[in-house]
Amino acid sequence: MEEKLKELEAKVKIAIAAAKTLSELQEVHNLYFSRKGELAGLMNELAKLSSAERPKMGQAINSAKVALLTEFEQKQSELKRAEMESQLEEEWVDITAPGVDGHRGHIHPLSQVQQEVEEIFSSMGFEIKDGPEVESEYFNFEGLNIPASHPARDMQDTFFVDENPDKDFGRLVLRTHTSPVQVRTMQAEGAPLRIIVPGRVFRYEATDASHDSTFYQVEGLLVDEDISLAHLKGVMEEFLTRLFQKEVHVRFRPGYFPFVEPGLELDFGCLLCEQKGCKTCKFTGWIEFMGAGMVHPFVLKAGGINPEKYQGWAFGFGLTRLVMMRHRIPDIRLNFGGDVRFLNQF
Ligand code: PHE
Hints:
Blueprint: H1 2-18, H2 22-33, H3 38-44, H4 53-91, H5 109-123, E1 127-128, E2 134-136, H6 137-140, H7 153-156, E3 172-174, H8 180-189, E4 193-202, E5 214-224, H9 229-244, E6 250-254, E7 260-269, E8 286-295, H10 297-302, E9 311-318, H11 319-327, H12 340-343
Parallel strand pairs: 1-4
Antiparallel strand pairs: 2-3, 4-5, 5-9, 6-7, 7-8, 8-9
Helix pairs in contact: 1-4, 2-4, 5-11
């Protein structure tokens, strides 16, 4: 039996030395040290010995086991360290290396200007409203004093979405201006009112550098008692001066829109030439900016407001055109062409 123990000791030492990974070493443990392992097997054989030999042999097996376990544990911690080191090697990161530069987008130039416009008008007490882009003929035309037979319809006749007229509201149409939100808001909120309506509009238009079938407008509407065009002039001068951060002058010219009376066009003094005359203002010193006027009593009535008690003015300007002036964009089609080489300039 002593012989057997020697052989076993030698076998275990070789096996421990040969283990290259922790799981191989675990197998060595199962094979020799576990309860069903070979060392335990040898212990069981003690029963066959005489009671004189048994304690001696028992001790010998035990001390051999203790010595072998020490070797086993040494090997185990060696392998653990080695595995940790190779893991560190694999997962190493250079925390001083420069980061990956993510592409950050930015707000579209039109939205940038829209936000500025909204901020300036909000600070003057105007609420921001919107309305549907698919609009009824009633709100787009009739409610604004543009009956079907009216020649002014020709200016804006446009894309119809369905041909089955509703008996009260007519057909559905892609709105040709933001003005329908005037009547909608008057009906919903009554007087007094102070709103602006930035939004997308559509026209049946042959596309060229200055015309597109889709563009943006900003509508303005103020309804209260004792309101005159002087208020409009003051509000627009203040608005444009803050927007361009430069003192801006405005002037009125007569203009025609069926939903205002009197109707007018508002120009502002050319900022490029200080009104001396240049190519941009066609040597007039003035830039055409928007349509406006006193809200027609018919429109107030359509909005459920008593024209004997309240008056107001309305205006509508092209937000797309404003952005083009601001950034000197030569072709309207660039705005929504989706070309990032264009967009990244802003
Ligand atoms: N809705 C008009 C247009 O699109 C502009 C306008 C608005 C004119 C309000 C007068 C008053 O041309």
